[in-house]
Amino acid sequence: MSETTVISGFVDTLLSVVKALLPLLSLFLIFQFLFLKLPRHYVFNLLKGTLLAVVGLLLFLEGVRIGFLPAGHAIGEMLGNITWRWLLIPFGFFIGFLTTWTEPAVRILCDQVEKASAGAIRKSVVLSVICAGVALFVGLGMAKIIYGIPLLYIVVPGYIIVLVMLWFSDRQFLSVAFDAGGVATGPMAVTFLMAIAIGVSSAIEGRDLVIHGFGLIALIALAPILSVMAMGLVVRIRIRYRG
């Protein structure tokens, strides 16, 4: 990647970040002048925070463009050319668990769950359950690409199971489960795992990039819902058994 490409991409990323944050900042300033009338130091701190957010998003998105996406695509292409393609399934399980384990949003959710439950639901348990669920479905996503399994054959039964489990899982875990599905599809999953899936699809003959390469993020969003609700079901059964 040449320096000119990096610089031009940097400018495009900067403009995208500014366009994303400018409406929110404008909305706040309008409310500030018309209704809020907050102290100057508060407004100054908010502007500093906005600037830090711009810098952080700019560095992250540029790092994704230069590093994560090309690396994930290259790894996926290499894996798609191996002789024993079934090995992609355990690899998907491993990389799915590892990626979710390092996902900042997942860890924040687990911390908040432990605090909100006063320690009754340990963050380490929630983290392990979410990671295991994502790992299982990333492995399933690799099987989908290898064997050409339609996405609907996995997603539709998965959400049917979710609807059934709504009636049996412990209520304390329902909201956590659906929030976990949102945070699991964070920047690590979207930028790295999706790139690997697209790379694998491009390397396997007869696989369409759009049909087979995409869809993994939908499975990752579904996985924590099922795994956390299953944990809630286990907790409910144990409580009844002890009672």
Q: What labels describe this entry?
A:
243 residues; mainly alpha
Give an overview in words.
84% of the residues lie in helices and 0% in strands. It is built from 10 helices and no strands. It has helices at residues 3-36, 40-80, 88-101, 104-116, 123-147, 152-165, 171-184, 187-203, 209-213, 216-242. It starts with a helix and ends with a helix.
Helix content estimate:
over 70%
Shape: flat
* Low-pLDDT regions: none
Give the number of domains: 2
What is the H-and-E element order?
Answer: HHHHHHHHHH
Which secondary-structure class do the elements indicate?
mainly alpha
Number of helices: 10
List the helices and strands and how they pair.
Blueprint (H helix, E strand, L loop, with lengths): L2 H34 L3 H41 L7 H14 L2 H13 L6 H25 L4 H14 L5 H14 L2 H17 L5 H5 L2 H27 L1
